[in-house]
Amino acid sequence: MSTSPVPELDDLDQRIIDILSKDARVSNRRIGSILGVNEGTIRARIRRLEETNSIRLTAVINTTQFGSLGTALIGVNTVRTEVKTVARKLVAMPEIACVILLLGRYDILTVGLFETAEELSEVANNKILALPGVTHVETSIAAKTIKYDYRMAKITSAWKVKRRSNGGR
């Protein structure tokens, strides 16, 4: 991970990101042609954006293709002084794909993909609720996703897809 300062995104950076967000496989030459800039400039801009963690080019799994229970949101309440400690422990859990500190009903919101209700229950009740400082856990299962802009954030569990494709190993 780079310690470089986050760059200010100018108009060219924004236009490059817009093109890549629609098709991350497009060549630097094609981007340059679209934007009227040489390929070397595009390559340097993309490298800088990646090195400063402004962008990350990655594949996003279409979770509906794998027959899992789906996306589950787990709201977590903690003892006030333990929020950051609990959040760090949640980040370390491989079943959890996203950890967000909140102002509102919950102290922390986690998101994960689960194959079965039993797996979700195991994580929520036996792993998260068992953490020191956790006072309450509430689960919700996404019944239907109306809008999910995968360009903003990916919430996937690639290890599960890999595990399933290897016969459950």
Q: State the CATH topology of the largest domain.
A: Alpha-Beta Plaits
The secondary structure category is alpha+beta
Q: Which spans of ≥5 residues are poorly predicted at pLDDT below 50?
A: 155-169
Could you tell me the radius of gyration in angstroms? 19 Å
Instruction: Encode the helix/strand succession as letters.
Output: HHHEHEEHEH
- Number of E strands: 4
Termini separation: 30 Å
What gross morphology would you assign? elongated
Number of domains: 2
What labels describe this entry?
Alpha-Beta Plaits; 6 helices; disordered C terminus; alpha+beta; Arc Repressor Mutant, subunit A; 2 domains; 169 residues
Tell me what the structure shows.
The protein contains 6 helices and 4 strands. With 169 residues, the chain is an alpha+beta fold. It has 2 domains: 11-51, Winged helix-like DNA-binding domain superfamily/Winged helix DNA-binding domain (Arc Repressor Mutant, subunit A), CATH 1.10.10.10; 63-143 and 152-165, Alpha-Beta Plaits (2-Layer Sandwich). The protein has a 4-stranded antiparallel beta sheet, covered by helices on one side. Strand 2 and strand 3 (108-114) form a beta hairpin. The chain is elongated. The two termini are 30 Å apart. The model is unreliable at 155-169 (pLDDT under 50).
How would the blueprint of this fold be written?
Elements: H1 11-22, H2 28-35, H3 39-51, E1 70-78, H4 83-91, E2 96-101, E3 108-114, H5 117-128, E4 134-141, H6 158-165
Antiparallel strand pairs: 1-3, 1-4, 2-3
Helix pairs in contact: 2-3
